[in-house]
Amino acid sequence: MEIRKLQKKYKIQFKTKTKLAVDLVKRLLPQIAAFGKPLELISTDVNLSAVEILETYARRFTIEEMFKDLKEEWGLGKQQVRNLNAHIGTFMMNLWGYTMVELWSWNEKEEHLKDRSRSPWDDVSRRPSHGDKRNALKRTMIERELIDAFGRKLKRRQ
Hints:
two-stranded antiparallel sheet; three-stranded antiparallel beta sheet; 5 strands
């Protein structure tokens, strides 16, 4: 992926609760060849290089992806509890569940994690999502329980 970097400095005015503040902002406009659209990244630290700004955004993006997975896969924020300690507990349980699935899938083969049988239109080369990893762990746990219960090797679905 080819990235062309253009850097410009702008004075941006924004309102705060008490006064109008003026700050110097560095604007980074990389042109990403794969998409052909400019991506505007803004930093209030004018001493950062273009690479440091991209790295900061990349780190932030992974955090956003994690919260998206927690909300979609684990139902974060949908728990109906009545006090603060219960909210903290459900939040921590969601984080632990997310972490356990990611740790389990770390050394698993990608082919084992992806099951596209229910969505043949999906791109087979796409990396496994957290949902794919979670479903693979469920399949593995059920398979192990059945093996323990019946004492024989079950045939894996192709």
